[in-house]
Amino acid sequence: MTLDDYEAALELWQHSPGIALGESDTRAQIEAFLARNPGLSFVAVQDNRLVGTVLCGQDGRRGYLHHLAVHEAYRRRGIGRQLVQLCLEGLRKQGILKCHIFLEADNREGEIFWVKIGWMKRPDIKVMSKFI
Q: Of 35, 72, 78, 132, whose Cβ has the fewest other Cβ atoms within 10 Å?
């Protein structure tokens, strides 16, 4: 993914249930994220249109996936799985051995997808956040 993909990606995210957009999703914030994590985020293009996205980054210990989205008309074709695999391969090359994904609590469809491709729900941890 490059910054040139931002507008099309944003449009896809805005129309994808389960994707929560916020102050960290501005063009400038995504530009900074991509610069800090080069070669880890990807898009899928079919029929000359962006149909899938995933943002991927790492903190030196763990990888994190954000905003995996596939256009509704292109789902169930393995695009999401391929995007995730590209991220995991990139993380592995950087020595990252574990990756996390955060889901909205009511994102049942997303939860089903992640479990189906081998991810496990973590009953032992909770996420807490603070605006700074």
A: 132
